[in-house]
Amino acid sequence: MGEWSAQDTDDGDFERFFKKLPEYEQAVLEAAVTHVLERLGIDICTTEWGKSLGGGLYEFRVRRSLTAILRAYGTSDSFITVDAGRQVLLRVFCTFYGAKVILLLGGYDKRRDASSKRQQREIQRARKRLARWRSRPIAEH
Question: Which residue among 44, 62, 75, 80 is least enclosed by CB atoms within 10 Å?
């Protein structure tokens, strides 16, 4: 859909995070990645959706409902569920590289644990994944 292409790391951490989310949160996150992150890429940092954490690590902030995302980002898909108006509070860590590729490094549900300690722990995990990915031979990127 967008100009950018999102992908998981080889360790599959983002995929594990995604699969553990309840169905509604999965739908919101999928819509946000497809309609916002892949469309805007690194420009998320000029909006409420993103923040640079330094060292090439970025935070994608998902804090809207499925209905709000689909209405604001121009899709005619009609996902009508009982909770379609319920906001979520998800964080996804990523980096941007190459020919408009977004590497998804993991994430967490901030609504379940909004503590600063949890946030810092998740950022450190994402930094370690990013360092591991960067240490691989370039041909593997």
Answer: 80
User: Per residue in 15-40, pLDDT tens?
Assistant: 999 999 999 999 999 999 999 999 99
Strands (E), the chain: 5-8, 50-54, 57-62, 90-97, 101-109
DSSP 27-46: HHHHHHIIIIIHHHGGGGGG
Q: Residue 56: what pLDDT?
A: 97
- pTM score of the predicted model: 0.89
d(CA 71, CA 140): 38
> Among 2, 4, 15, 10, which residue's Cα sits nearest to residue 92?
15
* Closest CA relative to residue 136, chosen from 103, 100, 106, 91: 103
> Tens digit of pLDDT for each residue in 38-58?
999 999 999 999 999 999 999
Alpha-carbon distance values, 94 to 39, 81, 85 (Å): 15, 29, 26
Side-chain-side CA neighbours of residue 44 (13 Å): 29
